[in-house]
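Section 5.1 Outputs to date
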Amino acid sequence: MTSEELRRCAVLGSPIAHSLSPVLHRAAYAELGLGWEYGAHDVTEDALGSFLDGLGAEWRGLSLTMPLKRAVVPMLDARSDLVEVSGAANTVILENGRRSGHNTDVPGAVGALTERHDGPWRSAIVLGGGATATSVLLALAELGCARAVLVVRDAGRARETLDAVARHPHAPTLEVHAFGEDLEDADVLVSTVPAGAQDDWVLSLVLQVGLVFEVVYDPWPTPLSDGAEAGEVPLVSGLDLLVHQAVLQVELMTGRRPGVAALRAAGERALDSR
């Protein structure tokens, strides 16, 4: 492959060693018959600008994970509607010297949820208030969620999430509660908190919902996923989300759409080997 034909993509974040994105994107390239390269780079928020400025013409796209999804937005030349609403971009397309930002987490969450469950989606409990919680709340808004409870340890840190959800044209009514409080039953429980933070109170919420969306995928299983399976409550995994959003990323970067099954199989093999 000549330098003119080479196309490079990568995932950026810090820490990054745990990321499954290289496994998923490389599986997509194999399925599509593309000789593209996809790597992983540990990039902090402070170093993001200089990293972007140093990219050559062979670079086509970037996947962004924490803590860069919100930090990259001011560095973009163009933003999709979902980036404007969410205030976060997990995908950057590089073309003709311009950076365009996209958010595949929101439609990825819609795809993950609807693949595993038929609803209803009228109400939700969401644990955690970061960028991933924002994306899933926006996905639930797309599915018609009318009422949601955001559970956070520090209400002040949820401001960006509250503002983003309020920008959605069909924003649900959103309440903020603290961990450990009594909550009403809901159709969906979404957890974006680490497995180590899933205490008895978190696990008790499984009994109050019709679906559990466990965003964590490593380590797997988590106490919450085990609780959902023990209670025979339908479960959507973090790998489901990662796969669906990666399919959309690959399509944005290459113009071709890989299959969900190939990426999920690659992700499962990688997790089993850890």
